[in-house]
């Protein structure tokens, strides 16, 4: 059975795995974005707090993904919980770092002008600082998503959802006639999903970032 015949015979299962893979990454990115931006907002005004937040999230990223999931299994069990926990933790660093850099890069004159017209600190943050910091924050979200697409495949080790199951099944049955097809289908599926997510972020950037800021 060649690769195209394999895809035809397993397309339903592959689509299900792809949907679960995309869903897991999307949901974890939503949580990581909220936590990452909040961390950036809380820490960007202080040099030591910003450095501490960056150090903490970068330390998480040094832990091998397989080891991270293995350590989480005794705590949260198999399946979705270790997948969601690991992906969320791994997705924090680029978002936290870019949120801090973006917020620190806002022109102080604009903040002073907002203060001068009577804006509160919260209003300045929501209406001036965060919108101006959004381009680097979005870049951090894109980087995190690309990382998590690959890391999510390891979730199959803990009976997690996604295309990693195809890859692991193929590796476990090396030598069988469809082993290579399974690995290839899972890998190409992850690449396609990563490209689709990135295209969606490009579109989001065009819709949410004013042309003057993009320039």
Automatic annotation (TrEMBL):
Q: How does it sit in the membrane?
A: Multi-pass membrane protein
Question: Any idea where this protein resides?
Answer: Cell membrane; Membrane
Q: Does the keyword Transmembrane helix apply?
A: yes
Kindly provide the name given to this protein in its UniProt entry.
ABC transporter permease
Annotated membrane-spanning segments are 24-44, 56-80, 183-204
ABC transmembrane type-1 domain location, by residue? 18-201
InterPro entries assigned to the protein according to its UniProt record, in alphabetical order: ABC_transp_perm/SBD (IPR051204), MetI-like (IPR000515), MetI-like_sf (IPR035906)
């Amino acid at each position: 059975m060649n690769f195209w015949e394999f895809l035809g015979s397993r397309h339903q299962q592959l689509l299900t795995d792809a949907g679960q893979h995309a869903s897991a990454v999307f949901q974890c990115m939503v949580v990581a974005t909220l936590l990452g931006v909040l961390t950036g907002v809380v820490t960007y005004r202080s040099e030591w707090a910003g450095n501490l937040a960056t150090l903490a999230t970068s330390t998480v990223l040094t832990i091998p993904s397989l080891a991270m999931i293995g350590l989480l299994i005794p705590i949260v069990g198999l399946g979705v919980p270790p997948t969601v926990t690991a992906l969320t933790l791994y997705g924090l660093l680029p978002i936290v770092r870019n949120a801090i850099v973006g917020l620190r890069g806002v022109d102080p004159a604009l903040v002073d002008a907002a203060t001068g017209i009577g804006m509160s600190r919260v209003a300045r943050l929501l209406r001036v600082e965060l919108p101006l910091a959004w381009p680097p924050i979005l870049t951090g979200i894109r980087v995190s998503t690309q990382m998590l697409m690959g890391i999510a495949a390891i979730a199959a080790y803990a009976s997690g959802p996604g295309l990693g199951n195809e890859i692991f099944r193929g590796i476990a049955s090396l030598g069988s006639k469809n082993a290579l097809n399974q690995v290839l289908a899972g890998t190409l599926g992850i690449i396609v999903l990563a490209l689709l997510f990135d295209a969606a972020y490009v579109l989001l950037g065009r819709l949410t970032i004013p042309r003057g800021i993009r320039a």
